[in-house]
Amino acid sequence: MDMIMEYGSIEDIPIYNCTGVSTFGKKRVTIGIVSMTYGTIMCILFLPCLRTMLLPDLFKLSCYKIMFYVGVVDVLALIMNSIFTGWLAYHGAVYCTYPEWIYLFGSAGLSLWCCSCLANILLLINRILHFKNQQLAEKVFGGQRTFVLLLAPTFYGLYFLFFTKPVLFTSVYYAWFFDPFIFQNRANDYINLLHSFNNIAIVILTCILYMYVGCMVIGEWKKTGTTVKKSNNILHQALVICALDQFSSTVYVAMNIIEMPEWTIVVAQYFWQSAHGFPVITYLTMNPTIRSRFFTIFLTRH
Fold it and tell me: What is the superkingdom listed in this entry's lineage (predicted)?
C-alpha cells in the first residue's frame, strides 16, 4: 500500500505496470465453483458460531474473545482466498486482468493471513496457560488484558497491509504469488522477506509449543494416570488450527522460492483455504458448548 501512496496508483507502480502485457490465463471452471461454494458455506457456518461466542457467559472468557477475533479474521480471509479466488479462477484471470482488484485483495489477504497466524499462536498460548497455571493465565489474559494483547496481531497484520508487497493471483497455477509474472527474470524484485520470516517463525513456534504440550500432557498423565480434561477441548482445537497454519506456511514459503509441481501449488492453496475455513468445523465437532448453541440459534431462525 505504501507504493500506491508513493506513485499515486497501482498502474503507475513500475514493477506492477501491465502496459502491453498479455492477460492470458487458464480457465478453471470446476475449481472456481468448488472454491466459491466452499468459501460461502464456511462463512455461513461461521456466523452462528461467532454470535454464540458473543454470548455474555462465553465472551467473558479470554479464550472466546480470542476465538471470536480469529473467527472474524477467518471470515474476511475466506472472502479473499476462497470466494474471490474462485471467481478469478472461474474466469481464468491473471494479475493483469484485474490489476487493481487483485493487488488490493492480495494486500488484504496477506495481512489477514499474518494476523491470523499470530492470533492463533496467542490462542494456543492462552490454552496452554489455562491448562498449566490458571492463576498465571488470569494475570496475563484476565479482564480487558485480552483486548490489549489482541492489538499485537492487529498491528502486525496492518504492517503487512501497508508496508510489504502483496500476493497476486494467477489462474495458470491457481495460487497467489508475489511475482505477478509480467517481467522475465525479475522474480527477485517481488520477494517479501517479512512474509517468509512470518511463515518460518510460525513453523518454529508451533513446533516448540507442540513439544511443550506433549511434555505437559505426559507430565499430567504420570502424576494422575489419566489425561486431565480441563480446557482440553479448546486446547485441541487450537492445536488443529495451528497445524493447518504450519503446513500452509511451509508450502507457501517453498513455492515462492523454488519451482514446484503444479499439483503441490494447488494443494497449498487448498490448505490455505482450510486454515481459515476448518476452524469452524473444529468448533462444531470438538466444542460441545458452541455446537449445542449453534443448533439452538439455527433452529430458532428456521
Answer: Eukaryota
Choose among 204, 201, 116: nearest CA to 160: 116
- 204-261 pLDDT, tens digit each: 887 787 777 767 766 666 666 554 454 455 556 656 666 666 666 667 666 666 677 7
Q: Is 177 helix (H, G, I), strand (E, B) or coil?
A: strand
Nearest CA among 288, 256, 2, 242 for reference residue 127: 242
Phi-psi region of 269 (alpha: psi -120 to 50; beta: other; left: phi over 0): alpha
- Cell, residue 261: 509441481
Domains parsed from the chain with CATH numbers: 2-19+26-301 (1.20.1070.10)
- Per-residue burial over 126-143, b if 16 or more Cβ lie within 10 Å, else e, is bbbbbbbeeeebeebbee
Angle at 36 between CA 32 and CA 41, to 5 degrees: 150
All three cell numbers of 227: 489425561
What span, in angstroms and rounded, lies between the C-alpha atoms of 16 and 179? 9
Residues 147-167 have a mean pLDDT of: 96
Between 221 and 152, whose confidence is greater? 152
* Residue corresponding to grid cell 506433549: 214
Between CA 107 and CA 261 the distance in angstroms is 25
Residue type, 150: L
State what percent of residues in the chain have pLDDT above 70.
84
Q: At 230, list the grid cell.
A: 480441563
